[in-house]
Amino acid sequence: MPPRPHLFRAGKPTTIVSWTSQQAQSPLCLRLATRRCISADEKPLPKADAEPGPNQEQLPHVSEEAAITGKITGEGGPEIEQGTPVQEILKRDEESQEKAPKVMQEQVQPTSPKGTRSFSTSTRPRQEAMISFEDEGIETSGHKFDLPALPLPANMHLKYRYSPIVKQVTNLLMRDGKLSVAQRNMATILNHLRTASPPTINPDRPLIPGAPPASHLPLNPILYLTLAIDSVAPLLRIRAQKGIAGGGAALQVPVPLSLRQRRRQAVMWILDAASKKPSRGSGRGQFAQRVAEELVAITEGRSGVWDRRGGIHKLAVSARANLNIRPRR
Questions:
Q1: CA distance 64 to 190
Q2: Strands (E) located in the chain
Q3: Distance of alpha carbon 71 from alpha carbon 154, whole angstroms
Q4: Sign of CA dihedral 26, 30, 32, 37
Q5: Residue 145 to residue 147: CA distance in whole angstroms
Q6: Is the pTM of this model over 0.85?
Q7: Cis peptide before 151 (omega within 30 of 0)
Q8: Measured between alpha carbons, how far is 135 from 147 in angstroms, rounded to an integer?
Q9: Which of 128, 131, 180, 306 has the maximal Cβ count within 10 Å?
Q10: From CA 224, how far away is CA 209, in angstroms rounded?
């Protein structure tokens, strides 16, 4: 604070100075500095003699580049001097159409008489546009196979594009829900059956009746797989039923199996036999390789699955006498 004046001091004159005169003023260097402004008559500052760097030069506009490219190729680019018409801009922007003047809205929106439609709700034009391969007589020259007959059959569905036995074996090969791994193993099995040498059929353990010659099996790996599985598939299963003869003793009763149940039992035997085989290498395709070798062994009559099938059938024949026993109440 400034010192207070002492009014009762008599001997010296007293000078009263206001606070506004003692306020701090701006520095001298700022007050003396002059501002330099370039007028219209004055020339701009000279540019630097050094050439601009690669990142200092401003790139041309996209339309300018397109015009230069069209001029070089002779195709003709966009007209740079003429801008985009307002109607085209309004067609692309619906919000601008609502705010545009009414005259421009009429130019953009096509006018149609009341009570008419720009489209037809009748299904007759669609029926006339449908093409029938047989009626029109479309040439199928150049196609390896003929065009499919319309309407498409029921077995052309996407979910049923594989053979039923291939799909069933793939599902039995699957572990932990990894379907892609099971499909890869199934492809390895079929590829091994296709590239393997023709099997030697054992007359003591023949395949099911109606099987083609052994030399034809590698040509159709799916048929090869079907014959190997159906040949060792059991016809019956043994069920232990309690109280059928009185008391708590259980009697063995043979029960017939359906085609899908027979194949499932055969595949489970094949997978069990393949899992007990020693591996001859390493890799993710070793199990599929062992399953394929087990299928070849079944076709040649060298697999132990034949013995398991024979044992089930012998037991079922010996237990067929229990079918005539009626359960007591």
A1: 61
A2: 236-242, 250-256
A3: 59
A4: negative
A5: 7
A6: no
A7: yes
A8: 13
A9: 306
A10: 14
In angstroms, the first-to-last Cα distance of the chain is 121
Neighbour tally for 39: CB within 10 Å: 5
Q: Please, are residues 253 and 323 in contact by the beta-carbon 8 Å criterion? A: yes
CA-to-CA distance for 135 and 150, rounded, in angstroms?
Answer: 12
Q: How many whole angstroms separate alpha carbon 131 and alpha carbon 207?
A: 49
Q: List CB contacts of 28: < 8 A, sequence separation 6 or more.
A: none
In contact, 237 and 312? CB cutoff 8 Å: yes
According to DSSP, residue 329 is labeled -
Cα–Cα distance between 43 and 132 in angstroms, integer? 81
- pLDDT 10s digits, 205-247: 999 999 999 999 999 999 999 999 999 999 999 998 887 766 7
- The tokens of 158 are what? 């996407």
The answer to whether the beta carbons of residues 215 and 198 sit under 8 Å apart is: yes
Token pair of 151, please? 């309407």
CA distance 180 to 329: 52
Distance between CA atoms of 219 and 214, rounded to whole angstroms?
10
Distance, CA of 80 to CA of 68 (rounded, Å) = 11
The tens digit of pLDDT for each residue in 105-130 reads 777 776 555 555 555 555 555 555 55
Question: How is 86-136 classified by DSSP, letter by letter?
Answer: HHHHHHH-HHHHHHS-HHHHHHHSPP--TT--SS---SHHHHHH---HHHH
